[in-house]
Design brief:
The chain has 227 residues and is α/β, with parallel strands linked by helices. The chain has one domain: 3-Layer(aba) Sandwich (Rossmann fold), CATH 3.40.50.150. The protein has five helices and nine strands, in the order αβαβββαβββαβαβ. The longest helix is centred in the middle third of the chain and has 17 residues. The chain is globular, with a radius of gyration of 17 Å.
Length: 227
């Protein structure tokens, strides 16, 4: 008898076009900062089992909820500015769950104030990655993730770097990784490549040459364990 095993995608190219993996669409590909469904799929298949509870403290358009439901995981999605009824309104800096109660956490937070995430005045996405405050607020989120996660379980954090003409390059990913190491043990660091990104156009190529920066076509996925 041949056992049916889940299909993993062991490459860095996990950005599935328009959230198209699986039986139904996941999240909303038009949402600013939408999470690639394939990233979440790989994580829950590798690090959870059916019936486990997965939490996304910054759920955005609901991609994590859609993936988990299709794969038989329990899921709670929070967001400071919910985009649909099954996302609970909540600030990720204070998650309303007991200590040591969650089997996996996935989070794809703002990378600074590069895009508009919401109109909520307390949205961390309104703070520039150039400011210490940005990292201080995200550390509050990391502490909450550590608190609710069961020992030995996985927290996965997706993040990108920052470049602007005035400030230059800011290694947001490295700064977040250093912060996460205060609370978690590293399991892996993954390069998530973005396919067909809009910055790969003539105007951005010209800007990159003029201002001497690289076109960033990837994000970091930090996979961390609570010990």
């Amino acid at each position: 008898m041949v056992e049916n095993k889940p299909v993993l995608h062991p490459t860095t190219l996990w950005d599935f076009p328009k959230q198209s993996y699986g039986k139904t669409p996941k999240g909303d590909w038009r949402f600013n900062g939408v999470t690639p469904a394939g990233v979440i799929y790989n994580l829950i298949i590798r690090y959870t089992k059916p019936g486990d509870l997965v939490v996304d403290p910054m759920c955005g358009s609901g991609t994590t909820i859609d993936v988990c439901k299709e794969e038989g995981r329990k899921v709670i999605g929070y967001d400071i500015a919910p985009t649909r009824p099954d996302i609970i309104q909540n600030d990720a800096r204070k998650i309303p769950l007991p200590d040591n109660s969650v089997d996996m956490v996935f989070i794809d937070p703002p990378y600074g104030d590069n895009v508009k995430y919401s109109d909520h005045p307390d949205c961390i996405g309104k703070i520039s990655a150039e400011k210490k405050e940005f990292y201080q607020e995200l550390e509050k989120v990391a502490k909450e993730i550590h608190r609710i996660l069961k020992p030995g379980k996985i927290a996965s954090w997706l993040i990108g770097d920052h470049w602007r003409k005035k400030s230059g390059f800011i290694p947001v990913g490295f700064k977040i990784y250093q912060m996460l190491e205060k609370y978690f043990e590293p399991v892996d660091v993954i390069c998530v490549v973005r396919r067909n990104q809009r910055s790969n156009t003539k105007i951005w190529e010209q800007r990159a040459l003029r201002y001497n920066f690289y076109l960033r076509g990837f994000k970091y996925l930090f996979i961390m364990k609570k010990v």
